[in-house]
TrEMBL record, chain A:
Keywords: Cell membrane, Membrane, Transmembrane, Transmembrane helix, Transport. The keyword Calcium does not apply. It comes from Dysgonomonas macrotermitis. It is found in: Cell membrane. This is ABC-2 type transport system permease protein. One of its GO terms (cellular component) is plasma membrane. Pfam families: ABC2_membrane_3. It is a multi-pass membrane protein. Its main location: membrane. Residues 136-366 form the ABC transmembrane type-2 domain. Belongs to the ABC-2 integral membrane protein family.
Automatic annotation (TrEMBL), chain B:
CDD domains: ABC_subfamily_A. GO terms for molecular function: ATP binding; ATP hydrolysis activity. It comes from Dysgonomonas macrotermitis. Gene3D superfamilies: P-loop containing nucleotide triphosphate hydrolases. It comes from the Bacteria. This is ABC-2 type transport system ATP-binding protein.
From TrEMBL, chain C:
Gene3D superfamilies: P-loop containing nucleotide triphosphate hydrolases. The lineage of its organism: Bacteria, Pseudomonadati, Bacteroidota, Bacteroidia, Bacteroidales. Residues 4-234 form the ABC transporter domain. It comes from the Bacteria. This is ABC-type multidrug transport system, ATPase component. It comes from Dysgonomonas macrotermitis. Signal peptide: none annotated. Keywords: ATP-binding, Nucleotide-binding. Pfam families: ABC_tran (PF00005). The keyword ATP-binding applies.
C-alpha cells in the first residue's frame, strides 16, 4: 500500500508542477458553463414558420399576414393536414407551425373568443421558447388590432406546444451535459496522456521492471484525476445553482454518487486508450475523436437523442455520458429518487467494470 | 580565401556571456573540429556562424559573407547535417533530395542530374525509392551527408555526425568527408567524441565561452603531454566553472 | 554460479519477413563483474537488455539472473535487478530528492534506509537536491539516474547506453563510478557504442548484427588481433588512401584519425613512398573492424 501512495504522491507532483494545465483543468468547467449558459443562446431572426390554416377565412389570413409582416419571421410554407406538421418539422427548416382551427373566424365573430395553436420545435429549447414568445406577442398585437373598433375586446387563446422536448428543460440541460463533458475530458484524456507520457519518456520500462504491480500504476494514475474531477462537479453545481439559478431539485448526494460512477467509467476509458497507444499525440487524437466528439454529439448534450435516426440512437447507448446525463437530469431537474435512475446506475456500473477489467488485463507486464 | 573568419565574436544573453570573444579562421577544404563540454557555448557559436543568431559584438564572415548583414547569403552557402535530424524518415531518398534541392533553389534539371550522380556514387540504385526509415543507419548517414552537400555549399556543418555507427561505416563516412574536403568543401564538425575529433585537420576546444586550445590533434597532444585527445579535453574541461545547462 | 547466464537466445522482429535481432547469443557474467556489451546502434544490444530485464520474451533459448529464469521467475528478478533504459530521462518535473524517494518507494524502501549505499555518488548531487531534474546538467542527470537505479540495493545492474550524448568529462566520471561499484559486489552489464570505453570493463563482448563476435578481457581481445598493424601518414591522407586501396600488397586499410591503419598481405610490410610509417598495437576498434571483415568474408 505504501508503494501505492508513493506513486499517487508522484502523480500529484506532476499535476501540481504543471500550473498551466492545472489551471485549465480547474477553470475549464467554469468557462464551458458560461459559454453554454450565456453565449449559445443567441439572437433569433429570420424564423421560418409554416401555417396550417383550416379556417381559410379573412381573419385567419390577416393573422398570417401579421406574422409574415414581422421582421423576425418568414412565411415558409402552407400545410394542409396535421400529418404535414410532423413531416415539415423533420425537414428541419421550419421552427414554428401556426395551426388555425376551422372554427376560428366563426368563433371570433360570434363569441369574440378564438383559439390558435403554436407548435414550436423545442429540440433547441431556448430558441423554441423565444420563438413561441414572439409568436404570442404577434398574436396579442393582432388581437388589439381587431379590438380597436369594437367595444368588447376579442380574445384569442393561444395553445402553445413544444414538440420533441415538452418540458423545455434544456435551458438547464447544459448543466448535466457539461458535467458529463468535463469529466470525460479530464478523466479520459488526462489519464491516458499521463500514462502514455511515461511510455514515451522511457520511464515506463523502469516501472515495469520494478516490483510494483501494474494495477497499482494504473490506479495511482487515476486517483488524482478523480479528485480533480470531483472538485469540478462541485464547482459546476455551485456556480450553476447560485450564479445561474439552475434548480437542484433532487438529492445532491445522489448526483455526486452518479458523478463518481461516471468518473470511474471515464477513467477506465482513458486507461484503455493508454494501454493500446504509444504516443501522447495518438492518445490525444483517439480521446478527442473517440470520446469527446461522441460525448458532445450523441449524449443528448447538444442534440436531443429522440430526434436522431435509429442508427445514431443505437450508438448513443454505448456512450456513458448519455446515461449519466439522463440520470442527472432526472435527479437534479426533476427531483426523482434512486428508483428512477437505478437502471442508468446499473449500466454505468456495468460499463465501468467491463472497461476497467479490460484495461487492467490489457496493461502488459512486458513490452 | 578562408571559409570562415571570425574575430572577437561575442554573444551575451542578458548578463550571461555565452560566447566570449572567440577568434579563429578556417581554410577552404579544411576539416575543422569544434569541441567543448555541454554548455561551453558551442551551440551558440555555431548558430551565429550559420546566420541563425545575431552576435552581440565582434566580426565575422562565413563563406565570404558577413554574419550580420548577409545572413541569408550565409544560409544559402552552407549545409547542415546532424545525427539527430537530416532527412525526413517518411520520404524516399529521391524525395529528400528533391526537397532539399528545392529549398536551396536548385533547378529541377540540376536536382535530377545531381541526384542520379549521388545515387550512382553511393551505389544506391536499389534503395533510391525506399523510405529513409527502412534504411540501415550507415546508409542513412551517407545519404544525409550527400543531401547536406547536395547544393554544393562552401561549408558543411556536421553535428556529431558519426555517433553510434559501426566502425567500418564510420570510416566510409569519414572518407566521404575527406573526399568533399578534397573538392574544396570545408567541414565544420562539432562533437563530444574525441575519437571523432581525431579525424579533423585542426581542432578547437571551448571552455566557458572561450577557446582554450586550437591546433592540430598531434600538436595538442604534444602541447599537453597527453597520449590522446581525451586527456587534453579532460585537462581543459575540468577547469570549467560554469555548469552545463 | 554466474550472475547472468544467457543460453542460445534468439529474438526475431517483424511479421512476414522477420529480422533476426539476436542470433544464438551465449555468454555468462560473473558476480561482481563489470561487463561491457560493445557494438553500434542496431546491433541488438537493447533487445538483449530487454530480455534480461524481463520486458521481452526471447523466441528461442533461455536466460537466467541469479539462477532465476527471466521468463518464469520475472517477479523475483524484478526485486533484485535494476535496469536503466537507453532513453531513460527520470521525471523532469520532480526534484532530485523526489525522484530518489519515488524510486525508493517503488521498491518498498526509503532514501534514508539506503543512504549509505548510494552515498558516494549522491553526495556529489546532494547540494542540488531541491532542484528539478529537468534543470540539471547532463552529467548530473546521469548521476541521479544511477542513484535512482541503485536505491534499492540491486545485485544486478543493467545499463543500456548510459553514456550516449554525455560529454567526455562526465563520461569519464561515470565510468569511474561504475568501477567503484564492483567493490559493493554489484554485477554490472553495460552497453555502449563507443569502442574507447571498452578498456574500462573487466570483460567485453563485441556485438554486431545480432551476433557476438568475440568475448574476452579487453587486453585478451587485443592480443587476438591476428596481424601486424601499421600506422601510416602522408601530407594528403585521402589521396594516400585511394592509392593504397588499389595496392594488392595491402590487406586492409582504414582511416584512423590522423593516420591510416593498414595490414599487409601475409604480414609482409612493404615500403611506401612519401609516408611516415610505424608499427603499432591495435585498439578495440581495429579488432572490431577485423572481426567484422572476417564475418563478412566467411558469410
Amino acid at each position: 500500500m505504501r508503494q501505492f501512495f508513493n506513486f499517487v504522491k508522484k502523480e500529484v507532483y506532476h499535476i501540481t508542477r504543471d500550473k498551466r494545465t492545472l489551471f485549465i483543468l480547474l477553470a475549464m468547467p467554469i468557462i464551458q458553463l458560461l459559454l453554454f449558459g450565456y453565449a449559445i443562446t443567441s439572437d433569433i431572426k429570420d424564423v421560418r414558420f409554416s401555417v396550417l390554416d383550416e379556417s381559410g377565412s379573412t381573419a385567419s389570413r390577416q393573422l398570417v399576414e401579421k406574422f409574415a409582416g414581422n421582421k423576425y419571421f418568414i412565411h415558409y410554407s402552407d400545410l394542409h393536414s396535421y400529418d404535414d406538421i410532423e413531416r415539415e418539422f423533420h425537414k428541419g427548416k421550419t421552427k414554428l407551425v401556426i395551426v388555425i382551427p376551422s372554427d376560428f373566424a366563426n368563433e371570433l365573430q360570434h363569441t369574440g373568443t378564438a383559439r390558435v395553436q403554436l407548435l414550436a420545435d423545442a429540440s433547441d429549447a431556448s430558441e423554441a421558447s423565444i420563438v413561441a414568445g414572439y409568436g404570442q406577442l404577434i398574436i396579442s398585437d393582432f388581437q388589439q388590432d381587431l379590438s380597436k373598433n369594437e367595444t368588447i375586446p376579442y380574445r384569442i387563446h393561444i395553445e402553445q406546444k413544444m414538440l420533441y422536448n415538452p418540458q423545455l428543460i434544456s435551458s438547464y440541460n447544459f448543466v448535466p451535459g457539461i458535467i458529463g463533458l468535463v469529466l470525460m475530458l479530464i478523466c479520459a484524456i488526462m489519464t491516458s496522456i499521463s500514462i502514455v507520457r511515461e511510455k514515451e519518456e522511457g520511464t515506463m520500462e523502469v516501472l515495469l521492471v520494478s516490483p510494483i504491480k501494474p494495477v497499482y500504476i494504473v490506479l495511482a494514475k487515476a486517483v488524482p484525476y478523480l479528485a480533480i474531477a470531483f472538485v469540478n462537479i462541485l464547482s459546476i453545481l455551485f456556480i450553476s445553482h447560485f450564479l445561474m439559478d439552475v434548480p437542484i431539485v433532487g438529492n445532491i448526494f445522489l448526483i455526486l454518487f452518479l458523478g463518481i460512477l461516471f468518473i470511474i467509467s471515464a477513467l477506465s476509458l482513458g486507461l484503455l486508450i493508454s494501454s493500446i497507444v504509444d504516443t501522447q499525440r495518438v492518445a490525444m487524437i483517439i480521446s478527442a475523436v473517440g470520446l469527446l466528439v461522441p460525448t458532445l454529439l450523441l449524449s443528448g448534450l447538444i442534440y436531443p437523442i429522440e430526434n436522431m435516426p435509429w442508427l445514431l440512437r443505437a450508438i448513443s447507448n454505448i456512450i456513458p455520458a448519455k446515461w449519466f446525463i439522463s440520470a442527472v437530469k432526472d435527479v437534479m431537474l426533476k427531483g426523482m429518487g434512486f428508483e428512477a435512475i437505478a437502471f442508468e446506475c446499473g449500466i454505468l456500473i456495468l460499463m465501468a467494470v467491463v472497461l476497467l477489467t479490460i484495461s487492467i488485463k490489457q496493461f502488459k507486464n512486458r513490452l | 580565401m578562408e571559409a570562415i573568419i571570425i574575430k572577437d565574436l561575442t554573444k551575451k544573453f542578458g548578463s550571461f556571456t555565452a560566447v566570449d570573444h572567440i577568434s579563429f579562421e578556417v581554410g577552404q577544404g579544411e576539416i575543422f573540429g569544434f569541441l567543448g563540454a555541454n554548455g561551453a557555448g558551442k551551440t551558440t557559436a555555431m548558430r551565429m556562424l550559420c546566420g541563425l543568431l545575431e552576435p552581440t559584438s565582434g566580426q565575422g564572415t562565413v563563406a565570404g559573407y558577413d554574419i550580420y548583414k548577409q545572413r541569408d547569403l550565409v544560409k544559402q552557402n552552407i549545409g547542415y547535417m546532424s545525427q539527430k535530424f537530416s532527412l525526413y524518415e517518411d520520404l524516399t531518398i529521391k524525395e529528400n533530395m528533391r526537397l532539399f534541392g528545392g529549398i536551396y533553389g536548385m533547378s529541377d534539371k540540376e536536382i535530377k542530374m545531381k541526384g542520379e550522380q549521388v545515387i550512382q556514387d553511393l551505389s544506391l540504385q536499389n534503395e533510391q525509392n525506399a523510405l529513409v526509415e527502412s534504411l540501415p543507419l550507415g546508409i542513412k548517414q551517407k545519404v544525409s551527408f550527400a543531401v547536406s552537400t547536395f547544393h554544393t555549399p562552401k561549408i558543411v556543418f556536421l553535428d556529431e555526425p558519426t555517433g553510434g555507427v559501426d566502425p567500418i561505416a564510420r570510416r566510409i563516412f569519414w572518407e566521404m568527408i575527406y573526399e568533399a574536403a578534397d573538392r574544396g568543401i570545408t567541414a565544420f564538425v562539432t562533437t563530444h567524441y574525441m575519437d571523432e575529433a581525431e579525424y579533423c585537420n585542426r581542432i578547437s576546444i571551448m571552455v566557458d565561452g572561450k577557446i582554450e586550445a586550437l591546433d592540430t590533434p598531434s600538436n595538442l597532444r604534444k602541447q599537453f603531454g597527453a597520449d590522446n585527445l581525451e586527456e587534453v579535453f579532460y585537462t581543459l574541461a575540468r577547469k570549467a566553472k560554469r555548469g552545463d545547462d | 554460479m554466474a550472475a547472468i547466464s544467457i543460453n542460445n537466445i534468439t529474438k526475431m522482429y517483424g511479421g512476414e519477413s522477420p529480422v533476426k535481432a539476436l542470433q544464438n547469443i551465449n555468454f555468462e557474467v560473473n558476480h561482481g563483474e563489470l561487463f561491457g556489451l560493445i557494438g553500434p546502434d542496431g546491433a541488438g544490444k537493447t533487445s538483449l537488455f530487454r530480455i534480461l530485464a524481463t520486458l521481452l520474451l526471447p523466441d528461442k533459448g533461455s536466460a537466467s539472473i541469479e539462477n532465476l529464469d527471466v521468463v518464469n521467475h520475472y517477479r523475483e528478478i524484478r526485486n533484485i535487478l535494476s535496469y536503466m533504459p537507453g532513453k531513460f530521462s527520470l521525471y523532469q518535473d520532480l526534484t532530485i530528492k523526489e525522484n530518489l524517494e519515488f524510486f525508493a518507494g517503488l521498491f518498498g524502501t526509503t532514501l534514508d534506509a539506503n543512504y549509505e549505499f548510494i552515498k558516494d555518488i549522491y553526495v556529489q548531487i546532494e547540494p542540488f537536491k531541491n532542484r528539478r531534474a529537468g534543470q540539471l546538467s547532463g552529467g548530473m542527470k546521469q548521476k541521479l539516474a544511477l542513484c535512482c537505479s541503485l536505491i534499492h540495493k540491486p545485485s544486478i545492474l543493467l545499463l543500456d547506453e548510459p553514456t550516449t550524448g554525455v560529454d567526455p568529462v562526465s563520461r569519464k566520471e561515470f565510468w569511474e563510478m561504475l568501477r567503484t561499484l564492483r567493490n559493493q559486489n554489484i554485477t554490472t552489464l553495460v552497453s555502449t557504442p563507443y569502442m574507447d570505453e571498452a578498456n574500462m570493463c573487466d570483460r567485453i563482448a563485441l556485438i554486431q548484427n545480432g551476433q557476438i563476435m568475440s568475448i574476452n578481457t579487453p587486453s585478451g581481445i587485443l592480443d587476438q588481433f591476428p596481424y601486424r598493424l601499421f600506422a601510416i601518414k602522408s601530407n594528403n591522407n585521402y589521396h594516400l588512401l585511394q592509392k593504397l586501396k588499389d595496392n594488392s600488397e595491402i590487406r586492409s586499410c582504414y582511416i584512423f584519425g590522423e593516420y591510416l591503419h593498414i595490414t599487409f598481405q601475409d604480414n609482409r610490410p612493404i615500403e611506401i613512398h612519401g609516408t611516415e610509417m610505424m608499427e603499432i598495437k591495435p585498439g578495440i576498434e581495429d579488432c572490431f573492424i577485423e572481426l567484422m571483415d572476417n564475418g563478412s568474408n566467411n558469410n
